[in-house]
Amino acid sequence: MKPHHHLDAFLSYIAVERGLAFNTIEAYRSDLLAFLEDLGESSLDLVRGEEITRHLAALKVRGFAETTLSRHLMAIKAFFRYLKRERLLSVDVATLLSPPKIWQRLPDVLSCEEVEALLKQPDEANLIGVRDCAILELLYATGLRASELCSLNVQDVDDHSLRVVGKGGKTRVVPLGRAALKALDRYLSWRAESDEPALFLGARGRRLTREALWELVKEYATSAKIKKNVSPHALRHSFATHLLQGGADLRIIQDLLGHATIATTDRYTHISNPALCEAFHRLHPRSKSERRGSDKADSTNN
């Protein structure tokens, strides 16, 4: 069985029968095309787990992020599962493959000082700088995914919040702080009248692409002399981590990020956070009583 013959049928299947979002389908298309290109003319029924592992290892060597590698594997597993279901393959060789734990690693989290340095980089003397300032403020203030920010329309903004369409077409309302509102208002006052509904426009007056968004974030991180791997997703994680450090409830963070389950949000509790330990010792009744007893013993000994 030649590799490319059934890709279109699979993409139609996940669009119609499984109802996956357009961005997810396009990501699967791109990931599977890369995989099939690596296979060359090899027949899919001759593929073994080693070929899949070798393909993923090659992507890792090329510098692909762990989350991207996991998505590639998910696409490949879904494709092989479909082929087996349609009886186009007798064996699903991808079913036993699972991403190593290293692929679950969270992106770098910026410190508050690094975020401040990043936000100061755009030159607000021109439209592009004003736009980019609004973008950076919004990413950090809301924790939006790159695709969610690029999908925003002007009508999604009101005086206090954003209407965001997330994964699976689920809509949520995200509140906006003063800094983000001020930056957005300034950008909208500069933005030229356009028939394009998109909130953020690229150089040609069309909707800003995710690729352009990633590029501008990385350029400003470089100019801010931040050594970490900074991306829109890193700002999303910084947003969630800083909320957690400030004492926000995990359920609130889940709602703000648009996570389907609390288990996804729970990853943030695994980030090393001395502030949480300090808060526990300061606030928990048992810890406080033990500390008082220790303090009394110290004063007696002194």
How would you describe the overall organization of this protein?
The protein has 302 residues and is mainly alpha-helical. The chain folds into 2 domains: 102 residues, Tyrosine recombinase, N-terminal domain (DNA polymerase, domain 1, Orthogonal Bundle); 164 residues, Intergrase catalytic core (hpI Integrase, Chain A, Orthogonal Bundle), CATH 1.10.443.10. It is built from 14 helices and 2 strands.
* Widest sheet, order of strands: 1-2
- Note poorly predicted spans: 288-302
- Number of helical segments? 14
Residue share in helices? Answer: 55-70%
Number of β-strand runs = 2
| Mean pLDDT over all positions | 82
Anisotropy-based shape: globular
Which CATH architecture of the largest domain would you pick? Orthogonal Bundle
**Biggest sheet record:** 2 strands, antiparallel
Count of domains: 2
CATH superfamily of the largest domain: Intergrase catalytic core
Order of helices and strands: HHHHHHHEEHHHHHHH
Radius of gyration, taken over Cα atoms and rounded to an integer in Å:
23 Å
What name is given to the CATH topology of the largest domain? hpI Integrase, Chain A
Key terms:
302 residues; mainly alpha; DNA polymerase, domain 1; hpI Integrase, Chain A; 2 domains; two-stranded antiparallel ribbon; 3% strand; disordered C terminus
In a few lines, what is going on in this structure?
This protein has 302 residues and is mainly alpha-helical.
